[in-house]
Design a protein that fits this description.
Blueprint (H helix, E strand, L loop, with lengths): L1 H11 L20 H7 L6 H4 L11 E4 L3 E5 L5 E4 L5 H7 L6 H4 L1 E2 L7 E2 L5 E9 L1 H4 L9 H19 L6 E7 L4 E10 L1 E7 L2 H4 L3 H4 L11 E7 L13 E2 L8 E2 L8 E6 L10 H30 L3 H6 L1 H24 L1 H17 L2 H7 L2 H26 L5 H7 L2 H7 L6 H20 L3 H18 L8 H7 L5 H11 L5 H9 L3 H9 L1 H42 L14 E6 L3 E4 L2 E3 L2 E3 H7 L11 H9 L12 E6 L11 E3 L5 E8 L17 E5 H11 L11 E2 L2
Parallel strand pairs: 12-22
Antiparallel strand pairs: 1-2, 1-6, 2-3, 3-10, 4-9, 5-9, 6-8, 7-8, 9-10, 10-11, 13-14, 13-19, 15-16, 17-18, 18-21, 19-20, 20-21
Helix pairs in contact: 10-12, 10-13, 10-15, 10-19, 15-24, 16-24, 17-18, 18-22, 19-21
Length: 721
């Protein structure tokens, strides 16, 4: 009965403006949100959050790398983000002798801070509504392809003009499925240095075992510093660069949090799909996600067996394992949450009301057509291509089979060398790029792991993909090798040069037109090419065409929804642009008889300790501090608060986002969502959707008492208590 009551409540609330869901554009919060925020306790104004000609909070929020957020916390360009966001950068700086991932790292001066090649931090300088200019020359009578060409041309002009004679970067992003467009101007800093990171037993405590889960006890933070030139402008790395002077930085609060406290998150959420129809949700939950989960489960099983046996492999595969496991667990949580709440049914009920409204007026039918019927046809056609598309990327994409992916990276060099007129400079630049790529690849490569993953993926591909999407080498395995995948893969790795660093280096050095034939004959490159051709010729082209038609329909659908549901405040889906979400610190009840508090403490870290499980190993010094009760000013109630949950609407990309109190002071650092409400990317559930943050009291405790780096406090503004 309890589940039924919750279901009925949730079925209404996601479409109720009072649910406080949403990822709002800071520039626009004065239109609706600021009043509600102030009613909830926020003591500042909209201009304190976003202003162009005056310092504001937006100047202290950074896009960290390509997929996370961070916050500026000192006048010396000190930034804080998640440890897991910095995982890849820290891994690159690490070695067996200096394993910063495991042991941590703390610079005692600016001179000891470690540069990070390729790492960038972007700060938003301004945003502007440019819808009228982007859509100039567009009308309903032109074909979709012509519409997109006009829009692309207009966007290029806007972007180029916005940063002419400036050292900024500009991008124009669509909102509401292309009904509105905004220009974003960024300053991109390229000299970013590691200042401090706790050991894995703190910064990654709980590891993948606790990922997406609550209660949580992870000190998920790391400190970096932005460096700029003598004019305080973004510049390439140079020993002469100086710490960046920000227009604004966040004061750090020592007050801690209480249930019911106002909480605001500023960050760069990556992608949500709040307004998709029921057909989209069903496609993912019933077809695509289950198969992706099976593939990643197999990869993780193989990695896990090797990681527990070899410290070197654990270090090599830390970031890779995390990348595979993160989405694996998220997909499982989304399926669970959607099915538990009847997510497809909820969407269908809402669509039924919309359809009744649409069909009750002939002019609406003329304006909007039979939208849901069109969706039904398009998603039926899309489903098999979406599955094949995602499946193939699991094999040769970002988390795919490493040797095949690496072999495929030589395709561009072959194209350059085999051209009628060879651009020698371009060839040499590509060779340089491949040498660098080879160094990175072999530094973190295990032949044994890749072979096992290869065997497993090939076997699963044979079972899961329809005949039209199966690469030809599967027939070779069946006929020539009598279905013996292990023998086929052994022959593949024995005969390819792409699992041998020295051979690859020599191959790059001597690569010319004669080597193109040798490359094409290499078994790893041949298999990559086989799969790539199927992906582009038989899958991706059709996938793009159907999605293009769905995108066009989405533009019509969101307009119709805004007319149908006039009382609803429609926030735009996340698209990696700066957003604000607000809520309150609050625990929750995931199921009958289970009540989760809003916070965790250091007591829980000690209770979870398991020396035989890497995820739960507690550093000796942390245990000494705990048993001595040496908590300093950071303790509360005889322990130290570690993490808390609040009702803020967040998603991927919000990792590292500053969590602020009613005065704009830093109280926490967002790093995850609770599994019970993880479906919030498509359906926000105010009863179960919770974001997880590390408490700044714990962060300061670790910096001071554990790391002995309290000197950093001299450049921060620490308030309260």
């Amino acid at each position: 009965m309890l589940r039924l009551v919750v279901l009925l409540i949730v079925a209404v609330l996601p479409f109720n403006s009072e649910a406080r869901e949403g990822m709002w554009l800071p520039m626009l919060i004065d239109d609706f949100n600021i009043g509600e925020m102030q009613e909830m306790g926020f003591k500042l104004s909209a201009a304190d959050v976003y202003a162009v000609n005056a310092a504001s909070m937006k100047d202290a929020v950074v896009r960290f790398g390509n997929g996370c957020t961070g916050g500026v916390i000192s006048a010396e360009g000190l930034i804080i983000t998640n440890n897991h966001c910095a995982n890849s950068a820290i891994q690159k700086l690490s070695s067996i002798e200096n394993d910063y991932l495991t042991a941590g790292f703390w610079a005692s001066s600016h001179e000891e801070e470690l540069p990070n090649e390729g790492l960038t931090v972007s700060i938003l300088r301004s945003m502007e509504d440019v819808t009228a200019i982007v859509l100039s020359g567009v009308n309903d009578s032109i074909r979709e392809s012509a519409r997109q060409r006009i829009i692309a041309s207009n966007i290029d002009s806007i972007s180029n003009n916005a940063v002419k004679d400036l050292h900024y970067q500009a991008v124009v992003e669509p909102f509401y499925s292309g009904n509105r467009y905004y220009l974003f101007v960024y300053e991109v800093f390229k000299d970013i240095r590691l200042v401090g990171t706790p050991p894995a037993g703190i910064g990654d405590f709980g590891g993948e075992s606790d990922n997406w889960m609550w209660p949580r006890h992870t000190g998920d933070f790391a400190l970096f510093r932005i460096y700029a030139d003598e004019s305080n402008r973004a510049a390439d790395f140079s020993p002469t660069n100086v710490p960046y002077k920000p227009a604004h930085y966040f004061p750090v609060s020592l007050e801690g949090v209480e249930e019911g406290d106002f909480a605001m998150v500023l960050g760069f959420p990556a992608k949500t799909s709040q307004y998709v129809p029921s057909y989209h949700v069903s496609m993912l939950a019933d077809l695509v996600y289950p198969k992706m989960i099976e593939l990643r489960d197999a990869k993780l099983d193989i990695m896990d067996r090797h990681i527990v046996q070899d410290q070197k492999i654990r270090l090599q595969y830390a970031a890779k394992h995390s990348a595979v496991a993160n989405s694996f667990k998220r997909w499982k949580g989304e399926i669970r949450g959607l099915k538990m709440l009847g997510g497809v049914d909820m969407k269908q009920q809402y669509e039924a009301g919309f359809n009744t409204w649409l069909n009750s007026d002939s002019m609406r039918i003329v304006s909007y057509g039979n939208i849901l019927s069109e969706y039904s046809k398009l998603y039926k056609a899309l489903s098999k291509y979406r599955l094949a598309h995602d499946y193939m990327l699991e094999l040769i994409g970002y988390t795919g089979i490493e040797t095949l992916k690496f072999a495929g990276s030589f395709e561009r060099l072959a194209t350059l060398v085999d051209a009628e007129e060879v651009d020698e400079d371009a060839v040499e630049m590509e060779k340089l790029h491949l040498r660098e790529q080879a160094e990175k690849h072999f530094k973190d490569f295990s032949r044994a792991i890749d072979m096992e993953i290869c065997i497993s993926m090939f076997e699963m591909m044979e079972m899961d993909l329809p005949q039209e999407f199966r690469p030809s080498f599967l027939s070779t395995i069946k006929n020539q090798y009598k279905g013996d995948y292990s023998s086929f893969v052994k022959a593949l790795f024995d005969n390819t040069l792409f699992d041998k660093h020295n051979d690859v280096s020599k191959f790059i050095d001597k690569f010319d037109k004669r080597k193109v034939k040798e490359l094409k004959a290499d078994p790893a490159f041949a298999i990559y090419t086989d799969m790539r051709n199927i992906y582009y010729k038989d899958i991706n082209s059709r996938y793009i065409r159907i999605n293009s038609r769905i995108d066009s329909l989405n533009r019509v659908y969101i307009n119709a929804l805004m007319e149908y549901d006039k009382e609803r405040h429609f926030y735009p889906d996340a698209n990696s642009t700066l957003r604000l979400s607000y809520g309150e610190v609050m625990g929750y009840e995931p199921s009958d008889g289970i009540v989760y508090s809003y916070f965790t403490t250091l007591d829980g870290v000690i209770e979870k300790e398991d020396p035989d499980n890497y995820d739960y190993r507690v550093p000796e010094k942390l245990k000494e501090l705990y048993h001595a009760g040496d908590f300093g000013q950071y303790g509360m109630g005889g322990t130290v608060p570690v993490c808390f949950v609040s009702t803020n609407h967040t998603t991927g990309g919000n990792s590292g986002s500053p969590v602020l109190n009613d005065r704009g002071e830093l109280i926490g650092l967002n790093f995850d969502r609770a599994w019970d409400g993880i479906m919030s990317d498509m359906i926000f559930n105010p009863h179960l959707s919770r974001n997880i943050s590390v408490n700044m009291r714990y962060v300061l405790f670790i910096i001071d008492k554990y790391a002995g780096s309290a000197y950093l406090f001299d450049e921060m503004t620490i308030v309260g208590d």
